[in-house]
């Protein structure tokens, strides 16, 4: 089961122009600072170790490429939005960047220890299989795929009964038959459905993690406005200056308990942290799947 979601714009999720317009807001520094409090931070830091070969398929603004390159990983950022890549290269010329298609990667098989794909493969209307098979192909023996997609959890299923103008429940990915409701934007998947798709592409799920709870809850009536107010009320901080060669060396600051709960979704926060697993199950916007290739020994299970 999946939720098919549409957009009012003629150019949507599968268009480079759509994303280049979205990424032209100059929010690179803010996105980079978010890496310090990212709910996926512990997972990414565990796998993107110094010296590891990492590919981010669909690197967007490039904050993960910059952040984990600064921590010693050999990161390559790939995207089909060439103008966005050019802007990022002008900002940080030391980064390894490549224009390309996640469904036909320009790399040899077994090239990477880690492939990270955050919110990318759901934008293919015919389904994510081509991109997932390519991800499996470029993983080295013992490599890991971290792939996240929008999550069709209990909250989204209920809301789908009311928000019918721009979304509908479907059995699985596929082109529309008849009159669509707009321009296709993305799918949201149940955990079971996406695990089935991953298995069909030769990938085995080791673990999952829901995240982006606030953005999931923002689909509730009135919550979107409240979230926008909270985001806009944060005082701007000056961008960190990088070394002369254009690389970035972030300096994390200890977050407050509230930020650890609401933004980092830290289960270790006293009392409030107990709510995080329930909120992830019920209302996460995204679900991260940690995968290894089928038929390859999983180093995490030795």
What topology does this entry show?
Blueprint: E1 2-7, H1 16-22, H2 28-34, H3 41-47, E2 53-57, H4 63-69, E3 74-79, H5 82-91, E4 96-99, E5 112-118, H6 129-138, E6 139-150, H7 154-160, E7 167-170, E8 183-189, H8 191-200, E9 203-211, H9 213-217, H10 223-232, H11 257-262, H12 276-283, E10 286-293
Parallel strand pairs: 2-3, 2-5, 3-4, 5-6
Antiparallel strand pairs: 1-7, 1-8, 6-10, 9-10
Helix pairs in contact: 2-4
What does this structure look like?
This protein has 302 residues and is α/β, with parallel strands linked by helices. The chain has one domain (2-232, 252-293): 3-Layer(aba) Sandwich (Rossmann fold). Helices cover 31% and strands 23% of the residues. It has helices at residues 16-22, 28-34, 41-47, 63-69, 82-91, 129-138, 154-160, 191-200, 213-217, 223-232, 257-262, 276-283, and strands at 2-7, 53-57, 74-79, 96-99, 112-118, 139-150, 167-170, 183-189, 203-211, 286-293. Helix 2 packs across helix 4. The model is unreliable at 233-251 and 298-302 (pLDDT under 50).
Total helices: the number is 12
Look at the structure and give the mean pLDDT: 86
What distance separates the N and C termini? 34 Å
Helix/strand order: EHHHEHEHEEHEHEEHEHHHHE
Question: What's the short version?
Answer:
By secondary structure, this protein is of the alpha/beta class. The protein has helices at 16-22, 28-34, 41-47, 63-69, 82-91, 129-138, 154-160, 191-200, 213-217, 223-232, 257-262, 276-283; strands at 2-7, 53-57, 74-79, 96-99, 112-118, 139-150, 167-170, 183-189, 203-211, 286-293. The chain has a 7-stranded mixed sheet, with helices on both faces. A 3-stranded antiparallel sheet has the order 7-1-8.
